[in-house]
């Protein structure tokens, strides 16, 4: 039961943090370190599977939009073609970098020290870019509809998404910052980030799941996997809608401040040898 309880804790962390600009990977590394649910091949594979649960929440919440764009694409309509081409364009930078550096990232960047650095750098970038570009994203020329995103803007978002390969940076924060710089309004940048998460995370997860040896798993691990997937899905389902509602009214500075405070606390815990 203890491993199942740990799995539920990690799944809740994933569901809450996946689409917030605070880094789900960073938080799972840190919480996993605190509750001793890390380091093993199963723990690494488990984190990948529950990320797919969180992604499923986006598919469910935005299913009408996804279905509409699928139908539009097969009718060979401009809006449907443009939507899917934009996702492909925005996916390419991370796909190329991920395929090239995946093993090196897993070996050298998945630790508490790099998460602390990611929290600090990401927090500072969030404040600087929001201060300089969010006002422009509210301007007359800002993109306020997903259908109006240009191919060039999609590529800029995709390039910024590559920052998320550093644990602690946050895929959500990176893509939203890229959206601001590209001229997207905050809600559109966030929604595009959600849609972009589907191919990027399914592809990245599939790559890692393919490498895992499932023959070594025991019953409680299979149970943990199933429970964790469901918990991550349900938690993310609750968070995504509320996050979009928040972004329509409030700045993201509060998340940047949280990141910086978290980095200081984590650095203190590392210095005290509470975590490694």
TrEMBL record:
<feature type="transmembrane region" description="Helical">
    <location>
        <begin position="222"/>
        <end position="244"/>
    </location>
</feature>
<keyword id="KW-0812">Transmembrane</keyword>
<keyword id="KW-0573">Peptidoglycan synthesis</keyword>
<keyword id="KW-0378">Hydrolase</keyword>
<keyword id="KW-0961">Cell wall biogenesis/degradation</keyword>
<dbReference type="Pfam" id="PF02673">
    <property type="entry name" value="BacA"/>
</dbReference>
<feature type="transmembrane region" description="Helical">
    <location>
        <begin position="179"/>
        <end position="202"/>
    </location>
</feature>
<keyword id="KW-0472">Membrane</keyword>
<feature type="transmembrane region" description="Helical">
    <location>
        <begin position="7"/>
        <end position="30"/>
    </location>
</feature>
<keyword id="KW-0133">Cell shape</keyword>
<protein>
    <recommendedName>
        <fullName>Undecaprenyl-diphosphatase</fullName>
        <ecNumber>3.6.1.27</ecNumber>
    </recommendedName>
</protein>
<dbReference type="InterPro" id="IPR003824">
    <property type="entry name" value="UppP"/>
</dbReference>
<keyword id="KW-0046">Antibiotic resistance</keyword>
<feature type="transmembrane region" description="Helical">
    <location>
        <begin position="108"/>
        <end position="129"/>
    </location>
</feature>
<feature type="transmembrane region" description="Helical">
    <location>
        <begin position="256"/>
        <end position="275"/>
    </location>
</feature>
<feature type="transmembrane region" description="Helical">
    <location>
        <begin position="83"/>
        <end position="102"/>
    </location>
</feature>
<comment type="similarity">
    <text>Belongs to the UppP family.</text>
</comment>
<keyword id="KW-1133">Transmembrane helix</keyword>
<keyword id="KW-1003">Cell membrane</keyword>
<dbReference type="GO" id="GO:0050380">
    <property type="term" value="F:undecaprenyl-diphosphatase activity"/>
</dbReference>
<comment type="function">
    <text>Catalyzes the dephosphorylation of undecaprenyl diphosphate (UPP). Confers resistance to bacitracin.</text>
</comment>
<feature type="transmembrane region" description="Helical">
    <location>
        <begin position="42"/>
        <end position="63"/>
    </location>
</feature>
């Amino acid at each position: 039961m203890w491993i199942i309880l740990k799995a539920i804790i990690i799944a809740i962390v994933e569901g809450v943090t996946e689409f917030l600009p605070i880094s789900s990977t960073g938080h799972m590394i840190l919480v996993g370190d605190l509750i001793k649910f890390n380091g093993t091949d199963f723990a690494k594979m488990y984190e990948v599977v529950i990320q797919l649960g969180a992604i499923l929440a986006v598919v469910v919440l935005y299913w009408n939009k996804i279905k509409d764009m699928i139908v539009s694409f097969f009718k060979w309509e401009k809006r449907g073609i443009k939507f899917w081409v934009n996702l492909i364009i925005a996916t390419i930078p991370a796909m190329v970098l991920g395929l090239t550096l995946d093993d090196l990232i897993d070996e050298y960047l998945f630790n508490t020290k790099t998460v602390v650095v990611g929290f600090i750098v990401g927090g500072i970038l969030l404040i600087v870019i929001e201060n300089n570009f969010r006002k422009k994203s509210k301007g007359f020329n800002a993109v306020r509809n997903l259908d109006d995103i240009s191919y060039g803007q999609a590529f800029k978002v995709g390039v910024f998404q590559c920052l998320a390969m550093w644990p602690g940076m946050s895929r959500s924060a990176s893509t939203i910052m890229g959206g601001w710089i590209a001229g997207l309004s905050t809600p559109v940048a966030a929604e595009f980030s959600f849609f972009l998460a589907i191919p990027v995370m399914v592809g990245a997860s599939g790559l890692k799941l393919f490498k895992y040896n499932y023959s070594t798993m025991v019953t409680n691990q299979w149970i943990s996997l199933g429970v964790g997937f469901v918990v991550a899905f349900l938690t993310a389902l609750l968070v995504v809608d509320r996050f979009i509602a928040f972004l329509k009214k409030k700045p993201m500075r509060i998340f940047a401040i949280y990141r910086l405070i978290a980095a200081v606390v984590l650095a203190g815990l590392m210095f005290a040898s509470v975590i490694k």
